[in-house]
Amino acid sequence: MNGLLSGESLKQVPCMDDQQLLRYSRHILLDGFDIAGQERLGNARILVVGAGGLGCPAALYLAASGVGHIVVADDDVVEISNLQRQIGHATSDLGKAKVFSLAEKLRDINPQINIQPIAQRLQGDALVEQVAAADLVLDCSDNFVTRLEVNRACLLQQKPLVSGAAIRNEGQVAVFNLHPDSPCYVCLYGEEISAGNLTCSESGVLAPLVGIVGAMQAVEALKILAAYGKPLDGRLLLLDARAMEWRSLVLKKDPGCAACGTHSQPG
């Protein structure tokens, strides 16, 4: 695990000025978070894969919370059907690359942090390079192919992964790869890609559901980076929004996992 998550990099950050102390005062007041936790956020670099329904609320909260460097990658443009749920985009953004639309909103919220939009689908070496540079990755994508590749890159670079998904009325959040004995995404789902992979365009999705899941991904990211609270490591949190019922499932590392098992460890 890198120095940031162990707190070693705090010495690199100068003391916050009065405006920063005021901006982040509600974090600083939290028992166990305080100035040290906020400084960790200021030193952090997060990669957000996807600038849609999950990526928008996640990135908005990460920016407001003072994460120092946020990289957002997506190759899509804003369409009118996105506006029902993707709260980082507006009618005036139609036709604009989602990452540029979202980056504008993030800079408006917090001009003190660094926002890096990447208007492409990260794959192969480009994905591995961005994961290597990040302290933590948020998978806010909408397809299994991307999720599996992001998981592989995080395993290769030994970076924690906060995964979210939402479809119809169901949402889920989990944290993978936080420790060597933590499960990975493939431990839960395997590597078989279903031909019937559901999408929001085919199945629909309740608008606020993606906001709930994206916000929860931001919560988990902040907790990990600030060394605050208990992350969802080894747990899968499931939400049925129609009944407003939550379930928490315990996940275990699969020794035979094709991605992180005994015979497939990177390096």
Question: Please, could you describe this protein's structure?
Answer:
- The protein has one domain: 3-Layer(aba) Sandwich (Rossmann fold).
- The chain starts with a helix and ends in a 17-residue tail after the last strand.
- Helix content is 37%, strand content 17%.
- The protein has helices spanning 3-6, 18-23, 25-28, 34-43, 55-65, 98-109, 124-133, 144-157, 185-189, 200-203, 207-226, and strands at residues 45-49, 69-73, 114-118, 136-139, 161-167, 170-176, 235-240, 245-250.
- Mean pLDDT is 91; it is low at 6-13.
- Helix 5 (55-65) packs parallel to helix 6 (98-109), helix 5 (55-65) packs parallel to helix 11 and helix 7 crosses helix 8.
- The protein has an 8-stranded mixed β-sheet, with helices on both faces.
- Strand 2 (69-73), helix 6 and strand 3 form a beta-alpha-beta unit.
At a glance:
With 267 residues, the chain is α/β, with parallel strands linked by helices. The chain is built from eleven helices and eight strands. Helix 5 links the parallel strand 1 (45-49) and strand 2.
What's the SSE pattern? HHHHEHEHEHEHEEHHHEE
Question: Order of strands across the widest beta sheet?
Answer: 3-2-1-4-5-6-7-8
Strand percent estimate: 15-25%
* The CATH top-level class label: Alpha Beta
Find the count of extended strands (DSSP E, 2+ residues): 8
Intertermini distance? 15 Å
Count helical runs.
Answer: 11
Shape: globular
> Percentage of helical residues?
25-40%
Radius of gyration, in angstroms, nearest whole number: 18 Å
From the helix content, strand content and strand pairing, which structural class follows?
alpha/beta
